[in-house]
Design a protein that fits this description.
mainly alpha; two-stranded antiparallel ribbon; 2 strands; binds zinc ion
């Protein structure tokens, strides 16, 4: 064990700093000649890399720096990132290994080696953060949030993080290097991951998690009548999001490859007993829940033991399929009108189904040309109303809707966009009211903004209660009646 007397001083850690960064700064300040032979040796580390995600010297560091071990584990290592999706028993084991310095087999214990998403070869930094840190603290440091797998950009400065290789035994602080601005989807993943990492109360079982996924898939009509997951649709949705992350950035290439091999997201459901990398869950959560908070609300709702109260899964609407007969008639060149009569599906539905199946049909009545269709698609993806798009292009709403119906995944996306727009609108209405009427009670706010209040009560209850003034205790309600 390390002798704390030998450490005459130890710098305080900066907020959000990694253990490696902290020790590096200690080393640079101490004036030791060698990082490995002096500083690391003082911590009792003769082999192994100081910059590992989970270094083996945490117990020694805790003594040397006189800081509780649990604080170091929770705030200076990516413990929370990995622990969130681990079952409680494994989580406990994870903590024990970190607390005793037995970190050699940690990745394999957590099952993250097999999926080749272990980071560890590189460290990441943001030049703008470096500048700010020097301004605020007087020194640059490695940010823990920047090191989480899947965090490819800085959430505050919207620039791609700069990567440098981890060198086995070198004390190194980040340097200023310019990278390209981050893309919207890259930012989205970053904020989801950081949101998850920030909250320390993410405790749920694997069963709760899978149940929440299934319930949401059911709401999104992505379960078949036999309650099987429509993986094809789900993969398309995930694929459309992953496309927003540039090739070669972070661990996403591996996920894209798994997606095209039909291994992901299937693995999360079919190999439920295996522990999967958090990023796999997060990419699915992004598609199903949009943000971490909503997932947590759902996951807690989903905690209904299956034996006691089975989850009732409503029967999804049956979608109309293009029969083999209709397909062969259309391929043989029969007109839509004729085939419509034979198979008993309306001409417009038949046309959509045929286009979806890639069968060329006579599209003369359509007023939408391919180049316009692309522009329409772009606007639809942004959540623009069909009536507005129709007016922009001087075509009928029906023509726009026909474009939309060829892309069923867009309908889901648009609903989500609108949900978020509404939520933003109602949230800011409440915030503005509270700001201008600081003494208003909950009741007064409800009366003044009933629509926003009810909407948030239904869809965003915890946020609403967090941002309303505190409830007047029942005992005091009578006295304050005059001002309610
Ligand atoms: Zn930054």
């Amino acid at each position: 064990m390390v002798n704390p007397e030998r450490f005459s001083f130890f710098p305080s850690p900066a907020e959000g700093e990694t253990t490696y960064s902290w020790i590096t700064r200690y080393h640079l300040m101490s004036g030791h000649a060698s990082f490995r032979a002096n500083t690391m040796a003082l911590l009792g580390v003769l082999h192994g890399r100081a910059s590992n995600e989970f270094p083996s010297f945490l117990p020694q560091l805790s003594v040397a720096a006189d800081m509780p071990l649990s604080t170091i584990i929770h705030y200076m290592t990516p413990y929370q990132y990995y622990a969130t999706f681990l079952p409680e028993k494994l989580r406990q084991m994870f903590r024990e290994h970190l607390s005793t310095g037995q970190t050699r087999n940690l990745q394999s214990i957590m099952g993250t080696v097999a999926n080749r998403m272990t980071p560890g070869q590189q460290m990441y930094s943001c030049r703008h953060c470096i500048r700010e840190d020097i301004e605020q603290y007087g020194f640059p440091f490695w940010h823990l949030l920047h090191q989480l797998t899947g965090v490819v950009a800085c959430s505050r400065h919207h620039e791609l993080l700069h990567a440098v290789p981890r060198i086995k035994s070198q004390a190194m602080l980040p340097k200023l290097v310019i990278e390209r601005p981050s893309k919207a989807m890259e930012d989205r993943y970053v904020s989801l991951i950081q949101e998850m990492h920030k909250l320390q109360n993410n405790m749920f079982s694997k069963q709760q998690c899978l149940l929440a996924y299934r319930r949401r898939l059911c709401e999104m009509e992505m379960l078949t009548t036999h309650h099987r997951i429509r993986f094809q649709q789900l993969r398309e949705l995930i694929g459309s999001r992953l496309k927003g992350v540039e090739v070669g950035v972070g661990a996403f290439d591996y996920l894209k490859q798994q997606l095209s091999n039909n291994q992901f997201p299937e693995c999360l459901f079919y190999q439920a007993h295996v522990n999967h990398h958090p990023l796999k869950h997060l990419v699915l959560i992004d598609v199903l829940f949009e943000d971490w908070h909503e997932f947590i609300v759902e996951v807690n709702k989903a905690y209904v033991p299956l034996e006691a109260k089975p989850v009732v899964i409503s029967k999804p609407k049956r979608s109309i399929e293009l029969s083999h007969k209709a397909q062969s008639l259309l391929r043989a060149g029969r007109s839509l009108r004729v085939v419509s009569k034979v198979v008993g599906i309306s001409v417009s539905t038949l046309k959509i189904l045929a286009q979806r199946a890639g069968i060329l049909v006579d599209c003369r009545p359509s007023k939408v040309f391919p180049d316009i269709e692309r522009s329409i698609l772009r606007l639809l993806t942004l959540g623009e109303k069909t009536s507005g798009i129709a007016a922009t292009f001087g075509i009928s709403v029906g023509a726009v809707e026909q474009v939309l119906s060829k892309h069923p995944e867009l309908v889901i996306l648009r609903n989500k966009i609108w949900f978020h727009q509404r939520r933003k609108f109602h949230r800011s209405a409440i915030l503005m009211h509270v700001e201008h009427n600081p003494s208003a009670s909950r009741k007064l706010i409800r009366l003044a903004l009933s629509a926003s209040y009810i909407w948030l009560y239904k869809h965003d209850k915890s946020w609403l209660y967090e941002h309303l003034p505190p409830e007047i205790p029942r005992s005091e309600r009578f006295q304050s009646k005059g001002i309610i």
